[in-house]
Amino acid sequence: MIVDDQGREYIDAMASLWYANVGFGREEIADVIAEQTRRLGAFHTFDPFTNPQSEELAAKIVDLSPFERARVFFGSSGSEAVDTAMKLARIAQREAGRPEKHIIVSRERGYHGTNYGGTSVQGIAPNRDGWGPLVPGIINVVADDDEAMKRIFAEHGDEIAAVITEPIQGAAGVWPPPEGYLSHLRDLCDTYGAYLIFDEVITGFGRTGRWFGAQFYGVTPDMITFAKAVTSGYVPLSGVIVGPAVVDGLEANEGFILRTGYTYSGHPAACAVALKCIEIQERESLLERAVAIGELLGAGLRALKDDGMVTDVRGEGGVWGITVPDPVNLVATRDALLDEGVNLRPIPPNHFSMCPPLVITDGQIDSILAALRKVLGAAE
Q: Is residue 313 a contact partner of residue 322, using CB atoms and an 8 Å limit?
């Protein structure tokens, strides 16, 4: 629950902005922040420095990931993670002796943050508008079209450094991939020597019922970006899990120095919070809870579709999207839902997304569905 400045309570069906997996107001997390900042509030991790919290967290994340061998590059936001993954893809290709491989391929509907790299690769056209020249060497492909992607590789395969995609495209309205699509991307990347990057800023850390969407779909990429739920948003933290193919490229030449990093990479307080959030998810079986949420929420949303109140339902685990019929007004519907004590996210032209905290109760899920039924029924 969240409470506004008038004391009104709301069920937050969006986990703020896709991230509050363990919920709000956890005193044990506040205690971790206080304890860590008393011991070591912050110190950079540029060579030769590190701290125990970042080392422990990196090892834990690799253990949870689909990789048998990997390194972790920390940042503070999902946008930083995406731009870093793009840079790593290009420079690893160069260090591996393939400097001509510089093109990054992305998909329509993909959202990859708001830094220049992420803005350049994202597939939501209005978000690219007006910023002047974007990062060159980007190709955006029709979402879900195997043949379109195959043509791009046939035409540019010798120059493609990487493909970046969300396992489930989130910010555009929650769009799971067609069956076999991610495996097809893996095969194309293997055939042409390109890296596959999964942007798991939304799906990472339990949202699908597995630690990563890569595990949910059974497809292992070469890099995974993460943020949001790694700390449930209590403090900013992000990163890139760098799999063995990219690590091998970066380590191909003795004496190579990776000249990128952020002031707050491996921030000890952020890493300590992430370790606590992972512990909570494990202790409270929140990955299993994500599966149960998906069953309850999915069934209720499909019932709304059966009754003609929504035209499409999409989702997995604890992340769902619906499409409402024309001429339903998204903003007016959002406001009416707030009046019913429920917070959903409207996504133009006619979608709503929901991504509740994994600690949501069955009764709160019922309240979300009842509010949707009431408000959408009134809009007919």
A: yes
Secondary structure element (H or E) that encloses residue 195, with its range: strand 195-199
For the chain, the structural domain boundaries read: 2-22+284-379, 27-283
pTM for the whole structure: 0.97
List, for residues 132-174, the tens digit of each pLDDT value: 999 999 999 999 999 999 999 999 999 999 999 999 999 999 9
The answer to whether 216 and 222 are in contact (CB under 8 A) is: no
**pLDDT (tens digit, 9 = 90+) per residue, 312-321?**
999 999 999 9
Structure tokens at 113: 């943050």
Burial readout 90-111 (b: 16 or more C-beta within 10 A, e: otherwise): bbbbbbbebeebbbbbbbbbbb
Q: In the CATH scheme, what is the code of domain 27-283?
A: 3.40.640.10
Q: β-strand 238-242 against 223-226: which pairing, if any?
A: antiparallel
Cα 220-222-225 angle, rounded to 5 deg? 95
Options 2.40.128.20, 3.10.620.30, 3.90.1150.10, 2.40.10.480; CATH for 2-22+284-379 is: 3.90.1150.10
